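Q: Give me the 3D complex with magnesium ion.
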Amino acid sequence: MAQSPDKQNTLVMKFGGTSVGSIAAYKQVIQIVADAKKDWSNVVVVISAMSGITNLLIESAQQASQCNDHCYEQAARTLTQKHNEILDALVHDELLKQATSQSIQALITDFSNFCQAISVLGEATPRAMDAVVSLGERMNVRLLSAILQSAGIKSQCVESSTMIITDHHFQSARPDLAETKIRTQAIIHPLLEADIVPVITGFIGATPQGVTTTLGRGGSDYSAAIIGISLEADAVWVWTDVDGIMTADPRMVDCAQTLPELTYSEVAEMANFGAKVLHPKTIHPIVQEDITLRVCNTFNPKNPGTIITSDEHMDETGKMKAVATISGLKLITIKGHGMLGVPGVASRILAAVATTRASVPLITEASSEQSICFAISMELADQAVQAIQNEMAAELNNKDIDSVSMTDEVVIVTLVGPGMRNTVGIAGKIFMTLADHQINVISISYGASDLSLSLVVQIEDLEKAVKALHTLIC
Ligand code: ASP
Ligand code: MG
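A: Here is the predicted complex, encoded as structure tokens.
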């Protein structure tokens, strides 16, 4: 790879959908890449689809599976129009414009053909969905690479399906990191040697046989992490539309502020709890290598955003740093006198829940062992209750279990901060604050993590709870 004594070595920058959602946004990206090239020997770009495109592709394929062809025909026109609008505004060389437009158009033709096949079959398999949804990123790398070239930056688009090798778990594939590293270096190093900025599709991989897979919704951050570790990059910067990771959702709390620095574990705790800024899987691969991760704002590049550092930098003060939330949940409670002292009840209940493929963000059990309660996404709650009733049919029949019940919608509100578990008085402060604001706490989870305390409240209390708890953040 190229190396220059007065520059840092390798930077991977990922731009999310909103960073490539308008002419103005693409212009910002050009400037950011040009600036990065001044400071770094090797600049690699990973991008998502244009804002809104992935949703459009999913919706079209789903409609096609119900034989509603009108939807994808309309979507094909929208795709052409959106990409051409940017191309016309930002690519000036006629030949380049034409070549780019043709290769984007070829993908739009693929899109229509895929949807037509889905419509004929009357079903959109996960494999077919991946073929369709990957098109958003594939169109966009062609577009951005042409835009960079037009701005005088040598660039080439790269399909990550030639580099990121995954298993066959369509729509949520897992990468084979060893194989991916070999392929990524083989493809990207020669480009960097030639001072070319590779523009790589986020979100996408392929099986060893070359069948397209995707890494799950929002997976482009994860792609950037995979490419960062494969290239042994010094830094991965994730460009988004907010000033880094904030102390709370600014739509709920006016005085929410950017956190200049967070440790890997703190941010992982927040990623779990719906801080939509980083895809949860992004942190883990980066934490193992010593790569600096930064989250910054495409529309405010002067703001340093949030730097995510290794856990060695964690201060053990018990300071509360952020309030994160997950909404769209229900609590399921299983009660029964016959559960006391019987081994294996919890494991059977959770195994039954797992058959619905729901993940469980919070669990509590009464020390009397006569009730277990857990949170689950609203969409899967009915299914989970059914699965538990089936698994526990004999116990329900014998009245060892009295009931399996479910609440209305609830939310989890989590306070994140280092050393919370070992700090005297933290729980007291939190509950006093909630009581002062007349907020009822339905359930609590504390102690499993050193870094957080989670509370379940009713959906109606969400905003009030977040505002109240944010007053505890110093
Ligand atoms: N375009 C994909 C999605 O919307 C991946 C990403 O944006 O990270 O889920
Ligand atoms: Mg994203």
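A quick observation: The mean pLDDT is 93.
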